[in-house]
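Here we describe the complex-level prediction in full. Unlike the single-chain runs in Section 2.1, the three entities below were treated as one system.
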Amino acid sequence: MSIVEIEGLTFSFSRKEIPIINNFSFSMEKGEVVGILGQSGSGKSTLLRLISGLEMPMKGTIKIAGTTVVSEGVFIHPEERGVGMVFQDYALFPHMTVKDNILFGLSRLPRKQRKSRVDEMLELVQMESFEKRYPHELSGGQQQRIALARALAPKPNILLMDEPFSNLDADLKESIREELGLILKKADMTCIMVTHDRKDVEAICDYSIVVGQSNVPNDLNGDKIHTMK
Amino acid sequence: MKAELLKRKVKKEFNGWWTISLFGAVVILLPILFIFSSIFQEPNENWFHIRQYLLGNYVANTIILVVLTGVFTSFLGVTLAWLIAAYDFPLKRFFRWGLMLPLAIPTFIAVYTYRTMLGYTGVVQTTLRNHFDYQLKAEWLTISGISGAVFIFTLFLFPYVYMITRAFLESQSTSYIENARLLGRKPLAVFYKVVLPLSRPAIVGGTVLVIYEVLGDYGVTSYLGIHTISTAIFQTWFRMYDVNSAMRLAAWLMVIIAGVFFLEKLLRQRRRYHLSNKSRPLVPVKLRGMAGIAAFLYCGIVFLLGFLIPFVQLIAWAKLTFHKVWDASFFTLFYQTVYVALISTLLILILSVVVANVCRSHSSFSFMISKCVTLGYSIPGPIIAIGVLAVFISLDKWLAPIYSSVGLGEAPLILSLSLVMLIVGYFIRFMATGFNAIEVGFEKVGTKYTEASRMLGLGVTKTFLKVDLPLIKGSLISGFIVTFVEICKELPLALLLRPFNFETLATKTYQYANDEQIHEASISSLLIIAISILSVIIFQMIGKRGKQ
Amino acid sequence: MKLSKLFKPLLVSAALTVGLAGCGSTDESKSKGEEEKSKTAENQEVNIYTARHYEVDDAIYKKFTEETGIEVNVIKGEAEELIERIKREGESTEADLFVTVDGGVLANAKQNDILQPVTSDIINKNVPENLRDTDNNWIGLATRARIIAYSKDRVSPEELSTYEDLTSEKWNGKLLVRSSTSLYNQSLLASFIELNGEEKAEQWAKGIVNNFARQPDGGDRDQAKAIAAGTGDVAIMNTYYVGLLANSEDPEEVKVADSIGVFFPNQETNGTHVNISGIGLTKYSENAENAVKLIEYMTDVEAQEFLAANNYEFPVNPNAAKPELLESWGEFKMQELNFDTLGEHNQKAIEIFNKTGWK
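The structure predicted for the assembly as a whole is:
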């Protein structure tokens, strides 16, 4: 079963504008890590927001793990979709500790299991001793890892990442990229990653989609090429 | 060594800007210090009488009023802000700005309007009597006492909390809210666990503004016969001719106010780290069915009570007395009000900009100056008035030899009688309004552009004109409008400091209402409200254009 | 470089300040120097600081200007702040006349040494001695009585007699009166202190508080309305409010006036409490001649009748005719006391109010 199935997705910000996503179709399998490359304004972030339910498309259907979350007569709210997302600015809740941040998404889990899930996640991102810290006490790279841990904690069907490395400096990027790839494999997580940096895609993704005006062939890891416009 | 360091610091800080800021701060401090100085005189017998029988009552009433109003306005303001920011429902677009309109009706106008409306000869009771033959025995539907005051304050001051919280939610909270939802939490949990804690500085900021209004209020509390510290100051000064005891009461009030002031600063300090640079607008969620209707009704009722009903009532009364009261003098009234408000606002903005610019360096000098400059807002009007009056009369006496040498005659009262006194009074009182708006504007923009410009060789003034000013255009406009409207609505200062034959719309309204000529007061009230509404509309239009 | 940076902003501020000062003073009166230079007929004027806010007054001033060509400049405010202002302005004050309601305030003005005696035969003829200051520092303009209003339906005038009677059992829970912060009430109590002594006055206040139908709420007119609503049966209020209600544009208010009766208490004893509005000539008045002319005008029959007919106050000029409503009340006995005492006992009155809990 495909984890994500998208058919005929069309979206524009207002009726007068040309759709930024036009009749886009796509599917991916469990465990795949897909990169979406392109310049800013090309609609890649919008695609993520549509999948997560933060925006509503004009036309098209999206299915996640077999369930239709968006179609003609259906719209399932973000909190019900089982989609994890890491934003570009991480958006860790500043008034909560690391532990509480991760706990936040575990409300559907029975109480007894929550603590162990938190520990599991912290181990995954190798930040066990940071439980009681506040986000503003962490460095950029550390914040990113906690954001990841928080998103992964509820074991979502799919993880969406929007420019995950753009806020980090060059050498940090290298090491974090590697780690992220390992973490994703370890967690057997299906992931869509939006980025403007080829190197991100090369390091982690199974294949990528290029978005934008030109039909630049993608000669990276993959063989699948899709264009959105 | 220390002298060297000091000299270096002075060299770095000192420029024309700094001097002007200092000048402004002195102008504001002088009357205030003058007032405080009288406290160091011996208390008189009357003070002991006050202390024994009355002070407890005054303080208790003041605190009760402040607490109740604070609680209700926060609740109303936050719930409405959240509703508007996060959801879509029928007429939401209209309510978004419509819910600001209650601010256009000054509280002292609202109180007499509602009280008369619900009173014996008001529309509610007369309809009941004449059409349904029912005399409302109950006193419960009247606007009186503390409950009446809290009702009026809540309904007409909540927009402070609403506006500030809504602005925050709409742009600064998006990431957090979206993340919270993606993490699977229901809307109510998102509201309690994320939205509320994060909006705390905004809520606090708005509520503090409301509290200042309540603490310094004279119109509503005196009309309803509530004895607060502010009304006591008036009474002690006016009725008992005891300026000294009035000053002491003022000191008590200022202590409370200082407490509130510092509490707010304290609460704000901690949150600095979360001001995210990316302000993405929040995408509202559509409310369907019953939920949508409920939201609509909630906003609708608030709008009705807080604006539409009193507004319509005022129009009805205006129709009654129009022929009696309306004449050329109203144009003069209108013109005078706008004239003095305009000049004062310009002055305030100019100095606000200068001082705020100086304060961007975040040095201890600038900190002190910014505190001095915003002091006036927390001081009740009558206190400022008497201080200003005293200073100006001394000034005139001091300048007398100059006057006579220029041929203006013996000992004239040039400054004291002119509009300058009122303008200075407004200046002291509302400096904070303009300054806060501009300060926020500067904070949002940050120092990077300015620094870049300086590095490229432009001096402070040139940088300011070419770089800073255009960047804070939005804050300038909003600061201008808010200050302008506040001045038009202001009452105690205008009552006390105006020169001969000079009435503002507010003073005229007050005079009528106080003389129980409620119907006649409606016309000048409507003019004030019209000015406020116009400003709100312009504000909205500019805001829209700015977004594009 | 530093100096030039200073210059521009300083220059702007200085220009603004000067400009504003100019704007302000050119509009209004000129300074003394100019006045002395040009005392021609066109520039005649008189400046009033008044604590009376009635439209009627403005109309009278206008009429005065029409007749004499003398400009009347009016500054309105609260009595106490006006006195304070005149005092502080001292010799350089622009005020020629001070007008206010309440004998106590007039006495206070005199005490603060801001007034001077008025010498005019016309005025002395227009206004009887007891309605002027003993030294003519102020001249009475109109009076009002503080009477007992009662519900025509539920109370017969036979049940009423004195202010003191209002403290008796039978009015328990039926008495309406406004807050003690009202100067009208303070002067009422002050008059009792003068006539009956402190102790009796305090007893009276206590008795009144005991009989409250409700906590003081609203002005005099509100008490009348409360009688109509049935909240209480009797109220203490000023006579001219009854006139204003009866002639109101609002038919509901007229109904209220129709439903209440007016009773002048203490006719057998001390007389009904009467308070006075007055006008005084300021000590350092620059236009004393014009000022006296205005006082003469205001105390003359024409102006007095106009005042009574529009504001329902009692004229001081015995030759002035009263409007119908006032006539219908007939003659009544007034308290006999020096109005100065209202000011003397004001402090004490406030203290008694505070002690007895009359909010």
